[in-house]
Amino acid sequence: MTKFQQRLFHFGVVLLIALVVGCAPSPTQLPTIEATAIPTSSFGIPSTPVQPTLSPTIPVPTDVNQTAIPPTASTLERIKFAAGSTSATATGHLEPSESKQYILHVLAGQTMTINLAFTAGRAILVVWGDDGDVLLSDHAEASNFQRQLPTTQDYHIQLKGRPEGSTDYSMTVIIPSINTGAKRIEFAPGSDSSTVNGTLQPSLSDQYIINVQAGQTMTIDLTFTLGNAILVVWGADGDVLLSDHAEASSFQSVLPTTQDYYIMVKGRPDGSTTYSMTVTIPPKP
Fold it and tell me: What is the CA radius of gyration of the chain?
């Protein structure tokens, strides 16, 4: 090859390279290729991807009524004294952490004594008034109580079993009689009713007592020329026939037991009261 041919060949190569470079696309013109990863097994063999199983979301209905489990309620039992007696005894059994509740009516100024004895386990004594006044807390962990009571009302006695075992108990409640100043209502010969009159200062009360036979119907009516008052009726055995919570001024009931019955006229705190009370007890049919 002559020198002229060599130069011509070199020129052609250079020209070809220039044409190729000039026709190549720029980096911005190159398409972006996204590589898809092919899952492989541990042996390098492609395997089919496992699609996760999605649990469908199940809506919770909002209109479903759920049955609430009520708390265990203590059984309430009223303590009654036999006619002419000043004490009463109650026995029972408590499962671990179980409680038993009693209630009785006591006059202001009376002293109540409670003694617990056990043949198995042990329990804690709690005492409070119907007005919410706590006389003996469970923090004392006591099994005996004695106190002159400040108010005429129902008093609650709770026995709380301990959590470590069951309890068998005997509870004796003693309330000696006192002179309450109650006025005894007497009927005139041949009469089946009697009327008494009185005046009360704010928040003070008058007490009356009358003996009634079982099966007789006692009716009590209060009328007022000044103010207003509340009627309360209970038996000497502690059975409350009409509570002050009723805020009543009249009463009628067939009496269940032959005994003395107490009648209290409670004045209201907002003023004095002048009242007339008629008690009617017809003979038994």
Answer: 47
